């Protein structure tokens, strides 16, 4: 009963949390917003690599890793984002705290399964372009919402070296935007409000292979692929006249349309070497094709979309995971580096994201559960070409709780 209550309460909390603004980036204006999920905290702390198989942690990027679960795993993770937004002549600070994922992983012999909830993308921006010289229009833009996904994944251990897996995702959410424009010497302005309700299904498939190089060294590899899919977008548009206190003066007719947004295919490959109980070092490359994610309210002539490319290196080190006398030797240290071309091109300038990551895994005494902390420090965008640079610091936190569930007691 307690377990059911905990899971139900966390799922309720996740729905509430994911409904809030998960970003404050002006670049979330484009497409379906800023991509939010980059793996569990353990993966993010290693630059985003997901090449290792683990019996006590859920791999949410490659479903093949689920086959190695030996314990029922309940994982919940969140983050606090602190960013400074800079242009050539101004700067501002923003803060956001969000719940990033919640999942339950279950071992099933040669199979492993997991289900849960996580964000796919997030929209959250407020942009003002106020002209005081009386010769140009003043504009302001505001957007919020995003897309979440509920997933169910399965992994299967073909043999001791090779796993395969598949994950089904139901994507859903709503994005709302307001744009206001006032012309010089005209009393009233124009307000355009848009709401897009999105839904769709897509799949991930993956495989993982490892083999012994020698007695102490193992080669690890990972490959996962997401085929192209569609998001159905039901759009509502309202245009009205407002005065300078934002009160409505007149409403035009409401219009409704339906469009299909294309989620592009994605493939990721990683490889590394190490001793799974002590250390690992690896690299991963992820490439996503060009999508068609522009809706009527966020199409701009100065914007293009290219391939999204992410390059990650990282690893972990645990001095002695089996130590019974030293707590410090059972602590896991993680680190990594990432470089990402987001695929967004504005004013002929590619928007890139570069960051370093650090993390630490603290075991909970007398259990296989652990408490994880992570830091991401990086830069997204640039101040050149009249754009905005984001200098960000993400503080990440997660709990990974492991226990033997669904075991019939021998004594009553």
From TrEMBL:
Q: Where is the signal peptide?
A: 1-19
- Classification via SUPFAM superfamilies: Porins (SSF56935)
Carries keyword Signal?
Answer: yes
Q: Does the keyword Signal apply?
A: yes
The UniProt keywords, alphabetically, are: Signal
Q: What is this protein called?
A: Long-chain fatty acid transport protein
Organism, as annotated = Flavobacterium cellulosilyticum
